Amino acid sequence: MSSQTTSGAVTEHSEHYDEVGTRLGFWLFLFTELFLFGAFFIVYLVYRTTYLPDFQTASNQLSTVIGTTNTIILLFSSLTVVLAIHYMRKGIKKMALTFLSITILCGLAFLVIKSFEWGGKFDHNLFLQLRGNIEQGLGSPLLTPGSSEMLPMGQVLFFGLYFIMTGTHALHIIIGLIWMSVLWVWIYQGKLKTDRAGILENGGLYWHLVDLIWIYLFPLFYLIA
Amino acid sequence: MSKKKASQATESNNFFNQHTGKWTTFPMSWLTSTDHKRIGLMYGYSMFFFFGLAALIGLIIKLQKMYPASSGWEIIPPSLYGSFFTLHGVIMIFLFILPGASAVLGNFLLPLQLGAKDVAFPRVNLLSFWLYLGGAILAVVGILLGAADTGWTFTPPYSVTTKTISIFGFSFDSVSWMLVAAFILGWGTILTGINFIVTIHRMRCKGMTLFRMPLFSWTLYATSWIQVLATPVVGITLLMLAIERVMPVGFFDPAKGGDPILYQHLFWIYSHPAVYIMILPTMGLVSEILPTYCQRPIFGYKSIALSSCALAIFGYFIWAHHMFTTGMSDFANAVFSLLTFLVAIPTAIKVFNWSATLYKASISFQPALLFAIAYVFNFMIGGLTGMFLGSLSTSIHLHDTEFIVAHFHYTMFGGAAFGLIAGTLHYFPKMFGRIYSKGSAYAAFVLMFVGFHATYVPMFIMGMNGLPRRYHTYPDIPLFSNMQFASTIGSWILVSGIMLLLFTLVRGILKGEVTTERNPWNSSTLEWQTATPPTLFNFEQDMEVTRDPYDYPAFRLEQKKSKAGGKK
Q1: Would you tell me how many other CB atoms lie within 10 Å of the CB of residue A21?
Q2: Res B16: pLDDT
Q3: How many CB pairs under 8 A join A and B?
Q4: Which domains does chain A have, with CATH numbers?
Q5: Strand, helix or coil at B147?
Q6: Measured between alpha carbons, how far is B194 from A201 in angstroms, rounded to an integer?
Q7: What is the ipTM of this complex?
Q8: How close B247 gets to chain A, by Cα (Å)?
Q9: Helical H segments across B147-173, by residue range
């Protein structure tokens, strides 16, 4: 973005770089993300209290093995992103790139496992149907009101929250992956140098947040039974 | 500095002809500009446009109420009445008053007041504006094509079940469009908030300690924290509602096991603090305007600054006073009522300080000051009637009546919007390097002030007598029909005032007398030290602040010295 001096165009803005300010801004952004998921957690808490038995029954249908695997993968990727930042600060580009690649691979592995898990639910007709399809009588998912094999309300809410919350989380993973791929290219091309390691660090902070949210999602959906 | 030299400098050199990027031709040079002043002005143009538009819709709503429907009077068909007040509410709240003073004047003034070159993240600032523009287009298209009729609060279960109108064969889900639009607008607000907080912490010039910041910057600081911490909650809540509309999961629909009261909690956790997002920056503007036209230090600088923060904090803990009739426990009701009354304290601190600033001052009654004083007057009426609604027993009587509508307009229109207008008039010469016609600004003020009270006082009286809101008509009894008639006449005066004001501003921008005077109102704060209009990087040199912002005695000494010594 830093085109030097075309006539009438002044780009002093982008030359100014304040690492503390950038990090402060980024932490504030992370807080907004926490509040965003906080609203989800409040909704979850209210319905868990109202429909506790239903929530436990529904939770039993989620595979703890898959959940644990994904948790371990994400925690490991948090470690590797920290190592990437560490080597970036030291100026060892090759190691930084290696660990960043491992992080990206872990994120992809998480998404693949997640997609198998969602696919399994779809096979059992557990998915969010579009209203338009219901009105036209297409499909017979269990989450459709009025269908003969309709689940109890509490379980519908559980799976509704499950799909929406893990879906939002997966969306964050995808954003994080795109971000880190861009950083990877920038480091590889030498655009991102040691003095701007803070930018990579912000990417790492974001990844940790995504991790942290999963740490809460995992027990709430998989372990409460 | 001699006037001639200054005018030469500004002719060749100000933010109207200096660009920040590659684009140097008109629409793109503005739409891609990272300059905080251009972004502020772009917000200003779009917001005042929406203000005028929604005011006209309000005029139609009032016209519908001129005579009761039983007399055969019908301007809007009853089935569309809900869509009209939704259109009015959504545009006024989400597109005008919520970004409000903090987006227009905050963007323009914050770096100037702090002695900085720009905000902390100029490109993020531009992104905020794009998000605002995108959200605004989505909202307006959504509501015009689909005629949503939920009101601006989208309260379920009605907002889940309300039918959408189908146009050209495909059904158009207007409510979902507006929910998504509000979500996008919300992200714009959050990013602006983050930007301002970091700017205030990191970009102040030398000598500008926190307690030397002008009060408008203080109120922006408090506002930004609310924007950052409250907006995500409502954003995700509205998104859940949108998901509920397209998929059969029932987060808030009781027919599917959801809890509509939970929605109201989540909605008001944001939307009550949001009224402080709307009102706080304008309180800061009034605190800038009063000392300038009184030419004296503001009374109680620190208490005004800190009471802004107190309002931001208290604002979080009183959301459920919107829900006294939903069947919460009596204990919760009592606690929320008590907390609501606490809000009166920081508000009163401000009002008393403003009055003390005016007391025995030699006041220069410029148009901006008249709007500012009207602001204090209107806001006091709005605030005191708020106490009626905050106390439990009267709240049950007044709930969902026209009284609430009048109360809300006294705080948000008579308050926030009047304050924004006052600020715009005050800073107009600095922003455009032109002078508006004072005569028509005075006339607009008189029309708006008279029309405002004529419109909304009758609504207080009707609400007291039990007339519910959100109905297209009312029983034909003398009290209601006389009051509605008076209120409708009042709305004509009010809207003609608004139109005259908008005309004055537009004419001032296009044809006003050109000025390069740096400090036309003789104000002591830092933003007036820049060229008129300011250059791209605001100040010719790095600034240093050595005194309090409203220290008028020291300011007069400085002026004497510079006159005696000439330019160094």
Answers
A1: 17
A2: 86
A3: 138
A4: 57-126+137-223 (1.20.120.80)
A5: coil
A6: 18
A7: 0.89
A8: 5
A9: 158-161
Cα B340 from Cα B167, distance rounded (Å): 45
Beta bridge partners of B206: B544
Cβ atoms within 10 Å of B222's Cβ, excluding its own:
25
Q: What are phi and psi of A87, to 5 degrees?
A: -70, -30
- Closest-CA residue to B101 (of B520, B422, B376, B409): B422
Give the CA-trace dihedral at B209, B214, B220, B222, to 10 degrees: 60
* Confidence label for A149 from pLDDT (cuts 50, 70 and 90): low
Give the single-character DSSP code of A151. Answer: P
Q: What structural domains does chain B harbor?
A: 16-565 (1.20.210.10)
Please tell me which residue, B431 or A8, carries the higher pLDDT value. Answer: B431
pLDDT in tens, B297-319: 999 999 999 999 999 999 989 99
CB contact under 8 A, B251 and A160: yes
Q: State yes or no: pLDDT of A194 exceeds 50.
A: yes
Write down the pLDDT at residue B401: 95
Q: Does B157 touch chain A (CB under 8 A)?
A: no
Interface contact A9-B229, CB threshold 8 A: no
Interatomic CA distance for residues A76 and A208, integer angstroms? 11
| The pair of three-digit structure tokens given for residue A220, joined into one six-digit string | 């709430």
Closest CB to B248: pick one of A11, A16, A145: A145
Report pLDDT for B5: 43
CA B412, CA B93: separation in Å to the nearest integer?
A: 9
Query: What is the predicted pLDDT for the residue at B116?
Result: 92
Structure-token match 């009729």, residue found = B149
Cα atoms found within 13 Å of the Cα of residue A174, Cβ hemisphere only: 10
Whether residue B257 and residue A153 make contact (CB cut-off 8 A), yes or no, is: yes
Whether residue B229 and residue A35 make contact (CB cut-off 8 A), yes or no, is: yes
Is B248 in Cβ contact with A134 (below 8 Å)? yes
**Do residue B233 and residue A154 have CB atoms under 8 angstroms apart?**
no
Lowest mean pLDDT among A88-102, A141-155, B62-76, B326-340: A141-155
Q: pLDDT for A30-68, tens place per residue? A: 999 999 999 999 999 999 999 999 999 889 888 899 999
Assess B169–A contact: CB distance below 8 Å, yes or no.
no
> Does B24 reach chain A within 8 Å, measured CB to CB?
yes
Percent helix, strand and coil across chain B, each to the nearest 5: 70, 5, 25
Question: What are the CA-CA distances from residue B23 to residues B28, B34, B133, B491 (Å)?
Answer: 6, 11, 20, 44
Q: What is the pLDDT of residue B20?
A: 80
Minimum distance, in Å, between the CA of residue B98 and any CA atom of chain A: 18
Q: Any CB–CB contact under 8 A between B13 and chain A?
A: no
Task: Give every CB contact of residue B153 below 8 A, 6+ residues apart in sequence.
Answer: B267, B271
Q: Which residues of B touch A134 (CB under 8 A)?
A: 248
Q: Chain A residue closest to B251 (CA)?
A: A157
Residues of A in contact with B19 (CB under 8 A): 8-10
Residues of chain B with pLDDT under 70: 1-12, 164, 166-171, 566-568
Say which amino acid occupies B81.
Y
Between CA B461 and CA B453 the distance in angstroms is: 12
Q: Is B485 on the interface with A (CB under 8 A)?
A: no
| Contacts A159 to B, Cβ<8 Å | 249
> What local confidence, expressed as pLDDT, does residue B568 receive?
45
In chain B, which among 240-279 make CB contacts under 8 A with chain A? 240, 243, 245-251, 255-259, 262, 266
CA B149 – CA B158 distance, rounded (Å) = 9
User: What's the pLDDT at A119?
Assistant: 87
Report d(CA B241, CA A87) in Å as an integer: 45
Residue A84 structure tokens:
């990437």
Residue bearing tokens 């089935």:
B79
Per-residue tokens: B200 = 């205030």
Q: Least CB-CB distance to A131: which of B194, B231, B248?
A: B248
Cross-chain Cβ contact B240/A154 below 8 Å:
no
Per-residue pLDDT at B24: 79
